[in-house]
Amino acid sequence: MIDRAQVLHVAKLARLALSDEEVERMSRELSAVLGHIEKISELDLDGVSPTSHVVDVVNALRADEPGPSLPREVALAAAPERIDDGFGVPSPGAA
Amino acid sequence: MSEPIELTAAQAIERLRDGDLSAAELFGAYRARAAADELNAFTWVADAAPAQDGAPQGPLAGVPLAVKDLFCTEGVPSQSGSKILAGYRPPYTATAVARLADAGAALLGKTNQDEFAMGSSNENSAFGPVRNPWDRERVPGGSSGGSAAAVAAGLAPWALGTDTGGSIRQPAALCGIVGLKPTYGAVSRYGMIAFASSLDQAGPFTRDVTDAALLLRHMVGRDARDSTSLAFPEQIALPRGVDLRGLTLGVPEELTGEGIESGVREAFNATLALAEQLGASIETCNLPNAPHALSAYYLIAPAEASANLARFDGVRYGLRVDADDLSSMYTRTREQGFGPEVKRRIMLGTYALSSGYYDAYYGRAQQVRTKVAEDFRAAFERFDLLVTPTAPSVAFRLGEKVDDPLAMYLNDVCTVPMSLAGIPAISIPNGLSDGLPTGFQLCGPAFSENRLLNAAYVLEQALGFDGSAART
């Protein structure tokens, strides 16, 4: 149901590298899970509004008041790479 | 005086107030046990109680607290069971933990869990599986397996967990303790490393219902840092009921029949009969869409997870696998940092949200969510509470279901519907089947925690479950 090409496409969207063995296993396992899940396609859901959140709150806004943030040094402390006052990353390159 | 670890948290607080026990002595007793943990329940144990002048103050009076790894705790490893966050020490503390610390709780340790709370057996942790104190060859349940095992084994008096589709209630049931998932929004999610934001809720693991009420009391409330948090409409009261007179309990056919192991069902039916003797009126009812809840959940939760886990990209914290270009750095970091179940859910969620499949999967799942919530609303017009077994089986063997994701997901069949509806639910110990604990679950409308705790308390007193065998 989910073939190799689909697995590779979704993995690319998810920024996940998968080994050949993982691609094969993912295809099998996702197909089994989706096979079960597909039962919801039999339900009559015409006119049913979707629920994204159960809390009855709309547009919870806070007052626009400046407050202290994490100091830069603290925010950068766990970074794998730091360049000057920012997070360092490799070049986007030509890949 | 009995050993300090034999006291419930509420009893310990009384002894501390009376001066019969010192906070240092209590902390030391638990610290020694947690440090000698053979269940792999802890990923970090404190060297000492938090420093302060004089005896600990506040209503929780210095009683130690174990906290699930995914709660951020300032300066203390918070790894969410994942290699991608190995060694991460956050610069701030989650609101739920901070509130309990303000009330006097002392951080004892961080507990093992399924990676990013994805799992029902605690076998998906990068730090190894947790063992069930009732039988060390069996799982403690998940995803908050370390918290459940620690409390059941007397390595902590109580613990914090999180529940997205059953991750508090199911391990509580499998370990023979009390676990409560509050109403969605009752407890701030600020500082919880997110799995599925519309479902995640923090809640207590305790030895008894009174302790659950006490811990929850100091967790709830609106937090400006979580815009989905709500003010709890009343104080959480300590339960005091003596019977169930006047209470109507509904038994949903869809969650109490097929798929429930016979020993679990027998224990459940026996407790229904007991509830009736205690004055409750009991009737079967229907949640017609509940059989589809699991399908909707396994689309919605992975979809939200795939978005939430996009933040683990090797840039700001955690693991980075070096590569020549940015895109390869992302993909290799995530390949090596995430375990198999997390990858599976990211893939499932990304697929469900991808162009061409969104309406058929994610969109329909959200509609099913509406139907599931409507079923509960209709049921609560007739009933005060609904009751089900918590999990369809007792604790299964380590390794038994790791290669069959679907079989693993079916563990959540009785707990997922309440999560989708955002309503509170509690699991209490319901005796043993073949020497292993089973759980009895009660759920109620949003913000009915006091009603839920009272009914659970009355049943607990009548059942008289003795969990001391797991603390040896």
DSSP strand (E) fraction of chain A? Answer: under 5%
Termini separation of chain B (Å)? Answer: 18 Å
CATH superfamily of the largest domain in chain B: Amidase signature (AS) domain
CATH architecture annotation of the largest domain in chain B: Alpha-Beta Complex
CATH domain class name of the largest domain in chain B: Alpha Beta
Biggest pleated-sheet summary of chain A? 2 strands, antiparallel
CATH architecture grouping of the domain at 1-39 in chain A: Orthogonal Bundle
Oligomer: heterodimer
Distance between the termini of chain A: 30 Å
Radius of gyration of chain A: 22 Å
Name the poorly predicted regions of chain A.
Answer: none
Secondary-structure element pattern of chain A, one letter each: HHHEE
The number of E-state strands of chain B comes to: 11
Helix and strand layout, with pairings?
The complex is a heterodimer of chains A (95) and B (472).
Chain A: H1 4-13, H2 20-37, H3 72-76, E1 82-83, E2 86-87
Antiparallel strand pairs in A: 1-2
Chain B: H1 9-18, H2 23-35, E1 42-45, E2 64-68, H3 95-102, E3 106-111, H4 145-152, E4 158-163, H5 169-175, E5 178-181, E6 201-206, H6 209-217, E7 248-252, H7 262-277, E8 281-285, H8 293-308, H9 326-337, H10 340-353, H11 359-382, E9 385-389, H12 405-409, H13 416-421, E10 425-433, E11 436-443, H14 449-463
Parallel strand pairs in B: 2-3, 2-4, 7-8, 7-9
Antiparallel strand pairs in B: 1-3, 4-6, 5-6, 5-10, 9-11, 10-11
What's the short version?
Helix content of chain A is 35%, strand content 4%. Chain A is mainly alpha-helical and 95 residues long.
Tell me about this structure:
The complex is a heterodimer of chains A (95) and B (472). Chain A is built from 3 helices and 2 strands. Chain A has 95 residues and is mainly alpha-helical. In chain A, helix 1 packs across helix 2. Chain A is flat, with a radius of gyration of 22 Å. In chain A, strand 1 and strand 2 form a beta hairpin. Chain A starts with a helix and ends in an 8-residue tail after the last strand. Chain B is of the alpha/beta class and 472 residues long. Chain B folds into 2 domains: 256 residues, Amidase signature (AS) enzymes (Alpha-Beta Complex); 75 residues, no CATH class. Chain B has 14 helices and 11 strands. Chain B has an 11-stranded mixed β-sheet with strand order 1-3-2-4-6-5-10-11-9-7-8, with helices on both faces. The mean pLDDT of chain B is 96. Classes of the chains: A mainly alpha (95), B alpha/beta (472). At the A-B interface, helix 1 and helix 2 of A face helix 8, helix 9, helix 10, helix 11 and helix 12 of B.
